[in-house]
Amino acid sequence: MQVVTTRAELRRARATLPESVGVVPTMGYLHAGHVALVARARRESRSAIVTVFVNPTQFGPNEDLARYPRDIEGDRRLCLDAGVDLLYVPAVEEVYRPGFATTVDVGPVARRWEGERRPGHFVGVATVVTKLLNMTRADRAYFGEKDFQQLQVVRRLVADLDLSTEIIGCPTVREPDGLALSSRNVYLTPAERPRASAIYRGLTAASAAAAGGERDTARLRAAIEAPLHAADFRIDYVAIVDPVTLEPLDPVDRPARALVAARLGAVRLIDNIALEPPR
Ligand code: AMP
Q1: Which atom of ligand 1 is nearest to the CA of 34?
Q2: Label partner for 119 (CA 20 to 30 A): which of 3, 9, 95, 150?
């Protein structure tokens, strides 16, 4: 596995890789969710690149940039074990050079939900993803459904800007109790950790209700919110939306997505699930 930190090194190393190339963009502190993306990349491409970059421009002023968990040695080992060919770990100055001024604003799909609660977040995400796809010149890029709005934002930007990378969404990897793996789960206290599975209980309840013919958005949202209230979450939003535009959907008479953001103590968690009404 080659490990590089500059764009020049990346370009040289990229030229040695057998085609085709898959990339998994990450912010590091890698876990089994990231490894699943790498495994998929390796199945579908001859070479796999992982990028580790905690992108400052996607964090708001009151967010956790400074304390975002980092463990580059652990990440390196995990990538080596997963069969990654090239690990790119640029410094902030390497990605944002003096005079940097251009940003990517993806429009309505980035406005609601996370976009509303985290102003500037998706401009940061869209800009850095555009840059990483250009720097790595990957044929395919792998993103988790865990960050469902991010996945739709990336699909939109790649279509709109005529980028040639194919975007592949991958299912969310979960703990045995259903909690979606996340680098931020380390912030949960031992007392909070078991309560965190309430999100998945709510989502699966809504998914089962929708599959059973429930079309009423308010009742589907209530099914998600009940276990969250019981576990003392503070809810940011619970939304039932069109899976491409992320506009609210009512009634749920076609495939939809349920989105949740909620806080447990100091930790903000997001998750989502597919809703498939009977035909
Ligand atoms: P992050 O390092 O959190 O920015 O995530 C990097 C990529 O891994 C994103 O495409 C995430 O959606 C994806 N990812 C994070 N957690 C999971 C998970 N539990 N299952 C699948 N993919 C994930």
Answers
A1: 8
A2: 95
Q: Are strands 47-52 and 2-4 parallel, antiparallel or unpaired?
A: unpaired
Q: Ligand 1: distance of its center to the CA of 181 in Å?
A: 8
Question: Residue 251: is the preceding peptide bond cis (ω within 30°)?
Answer: yes
Residue-wise pLDDT tens digits, 91-131: 999 999 999 999 999 999 999 999 999 999 999 999 999 99
Residue 201, helix vs strand vs coil: helix
Amino acid at 213: G
**Ligand 1 pocket test: which of 30, 31, 34, 35 has the largest number of ligand atoms within 8 Å of its C-beta?**
34
121 is catalytic: no
pLDDT over 70 for what percent of the chain?
100
For the beta carbon of residue 279, count every other beta carbon within 10 angstroms.
4
Atom number in ligand 1 closest to CA 173: 20
pLDDT at residue 38 in the model: 98
Q: Which residue has the tokens 């251009």?
A: 102
Residue 68: the pLDDT is: 92
